[in-house]
Amino acid sequence: MSLTAALRSAQQWIATDPDEQTRTELQQLVRRAESGDQEAVDELADAFDGTLSFGTAGLRGRLGPGSNRMNRVVVMRAAAGLAAYLRDTGGRSIVIGYDARRNSDVFAHDTARIMAGAGIAAMVLPHPLPTPVTAFAIGFLGTSGAVMVTASHNPPEDNGYKVYLGDGSQIVPPADAQISERIAAVGPVADIPTSDDYVTLGSEVLDAYVARAVNLLSPGPRQIRAVYTALHGVGGEVFMRAAADAGFPAPVPVAAQFEPDGHFPTVNFPNPEEPGAMDLAFAEAAAVDADIIIANDPDADRAAAGIRTADGGYRMLTGDEIGSLLAWWTVERMRRSGAPMMGTMAESIVSGTLLRGIAEDAGLDYAATLTGFKWISKVPGLIFGYEEALGYCCDPAYVKDKDGITALLLTLEMAAHLAVEGGSLQDVLDDLALRFGLHVTSQVSVRVSDLHLIRDAMARLRTSPPRVLGGRPVSAVVDLEEGADGLPPTDGLRFTLAGARVIIRPSGTEPKLKCYLQIVVPVLGEDLVAARALADAEMASLRSSVTDILGLP
């Protein structure tokens, strides 16, 4: 975009933007650009380089003025388009939740006013709350859909806009395109009808959500020493309340990260998977001699856990390890209660394959879906679903999305039961390795500032796929964009090797190229030490090889 075009777009934006803060920010940017500040010129061009796209993940992007940013204008247009879609499809009501990021409350109430102005009964949750509470509210209130204003675990400068429809799950095609068409048809924001005739809810939804979460647990041991971090998000008070109501001793909170703070001052990225994010939790666990470390991401739809190691320290479990443990516990709970083994366990295609063995060994059905709980939640007969990025659906009848609160409650329940019986979460992982082979998963993730780098890398890999990875010949290459295994097309490549697998795909919510690696090693003579040493060495080789073929800085 030329500077002249960017300046013209900026002046038009300033004339119509209802937000004084972004107007002022843009005016300052324009002055800098006009004075020849190249950084300002580049920022201005990027801010108006197209429109922030609405898709199955809704909206997500950097806060700031401009059509390619998250701001009140973009959100109001999205709300008006969604309202038109709801009217056209017979929708009559919507519930709106929000987290504690910057402007989340503003975006939520703007949405409510626009919905009310369109004749849609709008209900707003009373204060910042976890995403799973909003997902639960759809069924509890019987609404036609929901909006959750959150950017989950994205960097502090981001925000997002997640949309659910009446079945309780996030939108999937073709609804995303149909909503996007209606957003494109919205006129000037000043002409969008609004009304203050909407309802701000009380505590009824949260009370019902916590009661349901606690009701998931079975009677039994509760004694477990846990350290908990909310990572500056909105999960803290809700989780602590649910843990207390369930009868667990109060987890020790990481005080510096407990209160919601959209600036996330103690972490570089507010994601339990990111290096350094759990450092304060590790220190607290060592100080209080905790049995387990647990964490939510900022909107509490993800759950993380760390366990003791043989040397007296702690290590974080991978998303696949937690998924396997929760799957095992789902089966074990059914076995202990005498419930019939019925239902389906599901996971995304980038997650580890141990879940298939656990499900089929128990006589349960198994399904693999595209990445995202918008797909996992739609699996018929679902009793448990997960994806490796710390997302777990433990109560699909009530929350058709990942839910970090219930996942942590079940993790504590499992750990408490095992402790009384003289076992541990590591013992379960060891037993699963002996039965099904040692499944080791890892990830190579490259964050970029220029999305063209990701597109170029994917094109290069499609044109010239590697023949060897980690010293293993590549036996098959599947382009997921052409559809595979009966699933819809998605941007990704799958490389099959003897005893290993690599999937490479662009992230759907962040400027990242993500590579999902798995190695399966048989445990010979029940020698887990030797199997782990072999798997670690082979995974290191595979990671190095995959990093090399990406060709990214």
Could you please describe the fold and organization of this structure?
This protein has 553 residues and is of the alpha/beta class. It has four domains: 1-49, no CATH class; 55-202, Alpha-D-Glucose-1,6-Bisphosphate, subunit A, domain 3 (Alpha-D-Glucose-1,6-Bisphosphate, Chain A, domain 3, 3-Layer(aba) Sandwich), CATH 3.40.120; 208-434, Alpha-D-Glucose-1,6-Bisphosphate, subunit A, domain 3 (Alpha-D-Glucose-1,6-Bisphosphate, Chain A, domain 3, 3-Layer(aba) Sandwich), CATH 3.40.120.10; 437-550, TATA-Binding Protein (2-Layer Sandwich), CATH 3.30.310.50. Helices cover 40% and strands 20% of the residues. The chain has 17 helices and 21 strands. It has helices spanning 3-16, 20-34, 38-47, 72-88, 104-117, 131-141, 175-184, 204-215, 236-246, 279-288, 319-337, 354-361, 373-376, 404-420, 425-436, 451-463, 528-550, and strands at 59-62, 93-98, 121-124, 145-149, 158-165, 199-200, 226-229, 252-253, 292-296, 303-308, 314-316, 344-348, 365-369, 382-387, 391-393, 438-447, 468-469, 472-479, 493-497, 500-506, 512-521. The strands form four sheets. It has a six-stranded mixed beta sheet, with helices on both faces. Strands 16-21-20-19-18-17 form a six-stranded antiparallel beta sheet. It has a five-stranded mixed beta sheet with strand order 8-7-9-10-11. Strand 17 and strand 18 form a beta hairpin. Helix 2 crosses helix 3. The chain is globular, with a radius of gyration of 24 Å. It starts with a helix and ends with a helix. The relative contact order is 0.08. The mean pLDDT is 96.
